[in-house]
Amino acid sequence: MLPKLFRTNTRTLRYLILPVLALTLTHLVSYRKLPFEAGYQFPWMIFSAVLLICAVCCEANFICYSQLKKRFTIHSFSRKDIFRQLIVSGILTGVVFGFLVYSINYFVFDSITPITRFLSALLMAELIILLETLYFITRDLYLHHQVQTTATKAPPVWKITSGRTTQMIDENDIAYLYSQSGMVYLVCQSGRKLLTQFNSLNEVKERYPMDSFFQINRQYLIKLSAVDTVMKEVNQKLRVKLSPTAPEIPEAAMISRYRSVDFKKWMAQ
To answer: How far apart are CA 254 and CA 238, in angstroms?
Structure first.
């Protein structure tokens, strides 16, 4: 429910809620009569005035929120930022609401709103704007979290430079990396072998996230999809056959008994 609500266009949501809100305030605060009471007539003028006041106050608050939000990053909302946002929204609402109420009553209804009635209506307006502002803050935090989560789950793209050629390789296309004589080769799932700009596997590990990889020895950094078969050797060593194979790269690698335990745990994940 909340995800759909947060992804709904703000103005669309306002257009749906404001008439209902204005209708409720008209009958409970301004007109103070309900349809089933004697002498009831739908108060079109009052309803129109209340709807206008609600629309202007909410729009002014939305513009104010949008301008203030530009001054700080959405993911680092502090208590100070939230408090400042609420204070500014409250002051702006009081000014706009007061101007509209007294202007409409004086020029349209030819009357002056009693101070007690004005204060009760202002309190209601401030409560509505408070809820609207808290909705904006909650929505933006949620959407930011969703974007960050999606970005975290998305596999990174590796920038591989070989001589004068630079290629962008999706992490999903990588099978394993092989290091020999100060050179690191990348083997794709298709079996294509690329010479990279790295001199050691440690450089690769410092540059890119290794959540999907396991270093079985000094020469190989592999993904689970590259494991073809695992064979037991003497002294609790393991022999791993890799797939796909690549020219001039051994198709099998040895894992010491000290690494074999971690390798089995990694395989079991």
So the answer is: 6
Distance CA 166, CA 178 (A): 19
For residues 93 and 125, is the Cβ–Cβ distance under 8 A?
A: yes
Which are the contacts of 169, defined by CB distance < 8 A and separation ≥ 6? 157, 158, 159, 160, 186, 188, 194
Distances (CA, A) of 155 to 6, 209, 228: 26, 9, 23
> Residue 97 has which token pair?
């609401």
Phi, psi at 180, each rounded to 5°: -160, 130
Q: Alpha-carbon distance 54 to 39, whole Å? A: 27
Which residue positions in the chain have pLDDT lower than 50? 75
**Predicted model pTM:** 0.53
**Residue 149 has what pLDDT?**
62
Tokens describing residue 138: 């909650």
∠ CA 6-12-13, nearest 5°, is 50
Distance CA 234, CA 211 (A): 30
In whole angstroms, what is the distance from residue 96 CA to residue 12 CA?
22
